[in-house]
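1st attempt posting a full record on here, be nice pls
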Amino acid sequence: MYKTDIETKETSPVGTPGARGVQIQLLLDEKNGAPNFTMRRFIIQPGGQTPHHAHDWEHEVFILEGHGEVKLTDRSEPVSANDAILVPPGIEHSFHNTGSAPLAFLCLVPNGPATRG
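the predicted structure (as tokens):
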């Protein structure tokens, strides 16, 4: 078993082109004994967003706090605390903070290309 406290984890800015006001924390991964998935926490400041992108793997998102929207290729969906979201492989998406407080969420992705670049 491995247990961690998010308050002790390093927070780094997301430097990917198109990201604005986004920070990431790596919570669990292969280094901690998780053979299949990586758990990350994202924090998006008001007015911030993740880059609009797609990839070959699914990921699961759980909104911890805040309000925002997920923009997909053909529509936008509002999101808020306690929402669980599945982003299927190949779907273009981005997360936008439309609220006045940080939007924080957990994002789980499979180990491999999703976490190694």
